[in-house]
Each structure stands twice: as C-alpha cells, then as structure tokens.
Amino acid sequence: MGTGFSYEAQRSIQRKNAYELQKSTLQESVSAGIDYARETADEEVLELIDEQMIRLSGESQLTLQEKKMMRQEVFYSIRRLDVLEDLLASPEITEIMINGAGHIFVEEKGAVREADCHFSSEEKLMDVVQRIVSSCNKVVNAASPIADARLAGGERVSVVLPPVALNGPVVTIRKFPEKPVEMNDLIGWESISAEAAAFLGRLVAAGYNIFISGGTGSGKTTFLNALTAFIPPTERVITIEDNAELQIRHIPNLVRMETRDAHLEGCTPISIRDLIKTSLRMRPDRIIVGEVRGAETIDMVQAMNTGHDGSLSTGHANSAADMMERLVVMYMMGMDLNPDAIRRQLASGIDIVVHLGRLRDRSRKVLEIAQTQGSADGHVKLCTLYRFREEGEKNGRIYGKWEKTGELTNTFKLALAGLS
Predict the structure, then answer these.
(1) In CATH, which of 3.30.365.10, 3.30.460.80, 3.40.50.300, 3.60.20.10 is domain 183-416?
(2) What is the pLDDT of residues 268-296, one digit of tens each?
(3) Any long-range contacts for 17-25 (C-beta under 8 Å, 24+ apart)?
(4) What CATH code is assigned to 80-175?
(5) Which strands make up the sheet holding 379-394, listed edge to edge?
(6) What is the pTM of this model?
C-alpha cells in the first residue's frame, strides 16, 4: 500500500529531517566548545561554528546555501533569539505571538498568520525567554510567571509562563519602526486629516493638556509619539512609562524614566505614581505618562492642574466620554473622593481628548477630538471639535472624512503662546 506521498515529497521530508539532525549535532558541539567562564565575542563563536562544520563536513550532504543557513541559525540559537531573529528583522511584521514552542503567529500588514518556523523545544524557548528578561534586569519563573520586558531595539515583550499559561510559554512581542512614525505618515495613511493634525500641533505647541484614548491596538503610543514632535525643543520634558517605548529625538533636555517591579530580590518596586511624584521635583516643563491604568491618575491630573501645561498621557476606553468616566474610577482607586469633585478636577486639568479606533478593515484612525467644558449632571462635559464620518467601503478599505463639528472655546493658552 502506498504512503500517499510522492517520491519527491518523501525525499524532501528526509532531507529536512537530516538537516535538523545535523543542525542539532552542530549546536551541541559548538555549545560544548564555548568557555562560559569568560566573555566570548561573537566572532569567536562564529569561528567555532566554522571549525565544527568543517569537522562534521564528512557526514554532511548539504549544499553551500544550506550550510550558510545552518551557520546563521546555530549562531542565532546560541547568541541571539533563535528563530525570532528573522521575524524581528522583517519590516513588514509588527507583532510576534508565541503560543508555546510549536506555534508562532505574526501580524503582517494588518493580517495575522502562522509563521513557518517554530522552536525546537520548550527548553529552547525558555532559554530565549530568560535571555530577554535578564537583559532588562528582571526575573520570570514558575513562582513569578508574568513579566514585561523590552528588547535592545525597543520592542515591547510580554511573557506568561506555566502554570499560568497552559499551552507552554506564551510570549508576545510588539515591534516598533526604527524611524518613529510622524504626523505626516499618519496623514498619508489617512489616520487623520491634515487640518485636524495641524490643529492638534498648535495645541501641543501652546501647552494644552491632551489625553489620548482608544482600545488595544488602536495606535495610542504611536499617536502620542507623533504629537510630541510639536513640543518646542527648548523645553524640559520628562517621560514616564512602564516599558520605555517613546522615541522623542528632537528635545535635548529630555529625561526618560521607567518603572521597576519587585521581582528582583531586595529591590524596592517603583511605580508610575512614584515616578510622577519624583518628576515634580525635577523642574519639568511637561510630563508625559505613557499610560495610566489606576491610582496614578491622581498624580497625573494634579500635575496638569499645578502648572505643568502641555502634559500628555493615554488610556484605554471605547470613546472620549467613556475615557472620562474610566478616569473617575481610576482616580477613586487611590483616593476616596466625591465623584463630582473628581470630574471637576479632570475637566480643569485635561483640555483635549483625542479618541482613536481600529476599524473593521484593520486601519487605525482618529475618530474624535473633543474639548472639555467643565462638569455637570454627573458627567465631564465634552464638545466634539472633529469627528470621523464613515462614507463607505471600497476594495476592502473604509473611507470617509473628518468633519469639523465645533469651535475651540478655550483659546487662552493659544493666545498666551501667540498662536491663532
């Protein structure tokens, strides 16, 4: 009875298995030859790989191209991030999702697909995970199975290990472009209109406090980074983040701070709240908080209300109005205060709310720009200034226009800055 495979298919499978076996043998011999008692340069590791490949060449039926590929893969597995290296190098891939050693998914051009590579074993994946978190001076293990980290290139990493993750180590890597996304890029991608972008640019330059809201994956951090380009380079800016992602390059007097968890033995955890309080003693012109999720809302809003005009932050919400109510809840996580008093604080501190969304065609757009106008009837009053109006769908892409639906009434800061 036939196997159901053609002769060529069987030969291909046999050749692939032989390749993987030789790669495993090479990797073991190279690992055994490295002196881990001292610092070994990458060049030395490559030389050792070449020596072992020559030694094993008598058993090899590999082509020159296969040998080059094996050399690189073995080097990546020993000194880099193994199969992730090629995925990280691809400019089209924006997210890498690892669901155990055998399944890697990627987001490429807005679509999610399963990658044609995987880790050789769960042990190998765990080795890569430990390299990532240890480079950030963090610890992740069965006793403390959740950690956030970042790669040398700034990519954000989330790790969840067993026993919390039932299908093996789960790693999610959010990539960021080498060149920061600018407002002109967002206009070109039709994420915002040129008129609305220019309007927000003037507000940032004049020192309006702006809060960016949106769901997961709506592009809040990207948009925040694009807005910072309008900050005058003469100002002193302090950024505060859980994991440093902002890429502000035009401000010489820039201070970047990052939180620290308590995973390391003997280390005191340092929260967003701690860093905001510390930043107030560092003479900032503006404070930028990457994202508020809880009681740090108190310190962020108080900073906005005490002379740090032009401060920026982001948060998760389904609309601009929903963001205001979520901020009330987060404020109450750290202070037992009357909700109406909190709303008055929010309306006084936050001038503008920009709401982003990810539409069904996977595009990210600014859906609403609103100004706060005090509080009444148990709500922060918002006046929508710009709104995206969907007009239809063509070739799988949603199109529409940004309508100007209101006029800015709080023009004091614009006048103070000499801007129209």
Answers:
(1) 3.40.50.300
(2) 889 999 999 999 999 999 999 999 999 99
(3) 18/61, 19/62, 19/66, 19/70, 20/120, 22/56, 22/59, 22/60, 22/62, 22/70, 23/70, 23/73, 23/74, 24/120, 25/56
(4) 3.30.450.370
(5) 254-258, 237-241, 286-289, 312-316, 210-214, 352-358, 364-376, 379-394, 397-404
(6) 0.76
